[in-house]
């Protein structure tokens, strides 16, 4: 297009409600001001726009022409440049999730998972000593429902109401009504897990979009609502394990020899209630290994927390999420992201509301489980 007799470019950015104006950039033939030492700014720009779901960013990533370039806005503050694709552009958090994790986990430290299954941590490589075969079934399960389309993704790590530790009250509201974000050097909230569903999974398909996946879940629900179960078998091989290490594996698989009361969940659709499984092991032949693991963990927690290992907050929350009698299915729902209907509940959660900002309370608080949740050690009193 022409502006004042010169070549110019009309720059259209992403949709904003009630937006009335766009920008016109003068031709690049005009004399330019060259900015140097902006490698860091370019790196942040690529992270924000090219490695995210930004509409404008994905357009320019796929249509970049070095002869034309990419139209950007920039600012200079405290000697540092920031660049973006719109006048009110995004800024990268000064801290990362890696920084947040380091607040609770020592860098380059090894835990049992690393030492058992191996790791390729920075400046360290360790071969695993535990190996799993494929698990197969001799049954021929039918398709539960054909071509089920659902949202299977999860929130981005930048969704700070859940990923970053908040001062969360039991009513699910932030205590001081201010979120901790990666603008501060916050702590990671914990390890991400999906709780089991008590009832049969929701099977309502939704229209296909960029955020959905279509799959065919296997198995049949009977008339009375129970599931026609089928089994998978495979092998777990291990080499040169200490009794405590073997006990750790058995404890993880059987909820510390309480397997009859708990379910694991596996697979990409577990957030919707699929993939609920129970692992059964004859722990009577491995009691010494389980005892050795429990003794080690109890010694560590008593030294640091002055309590028994099975009474720690982490174990209580883990068991509450997988207890087979837990039933809060009505609360286990995906937030909705539907641009066509202008619905973005992820964004809504971050906004201040009259009744306060939302956060994720402890799972045991949501469930109102009985005090005598069966997570005691079967070996106490021996």
List keywords for this structure.
382 residues, alpha+beta, three-stranded antiparallel beta sheet, two-stranded antiparallel ribbon, 13% strand, globular
Walk me through the topology.
Layout: E1 2-3, E2 6-11, E3 23-26, H1 39-49, H2 55-63, E4 73-77, E5 80-84, H3 97-102, H4 112-117, E6 130-132, E7 148-151, H5 160-163, E8 212-215, E9 220-221, E10 227-228, E11 236-238, H6 243-254, E12 264-265, E13 276-277, H7 287-305, H8 313-322, E14 337-338, E15 343-344, H9 345-350, H10 363-367
Antiparallel strand pairs: 1-2, 2-3, 4-5, 6-11, 7-8, 9-10, 12-13, 14-15
Helix pairs in contact: 6-7
Structural account:
The chain is of the alpha+beta class and about 375 residues long. The chain has ten helices and 15 strands. The protein has helices at about 40-50, 55-65, 95-100, 110-115, 160-165, 245-255, 285-305, 315-320, 345-350, 365, and strands at about 1-5, 5-10, 25, 75, 80-85, 130, 150, 210-215, 220, 225-230, 235-240, 265, 275, 335-340, 345. The strands form seven sheets. The chain has a three-stranded antiparallel beta sheet with strand order 1-2-3, with no helix packed on it. It has a two-stranded antiparallel ribbon with strand order 4-5. Strands 6-11 form a two-stranded antiparallel sheet. A hairpin with a 5-residue loop joins strand 9 (about 220) and strand 10 (about 225-230). Helix 6 packs across helix 7 (about 285-305). It is globular. The protein starts with a strand and ends in a 15-residue tail after the last helix. The mean pLDDT is about 80.
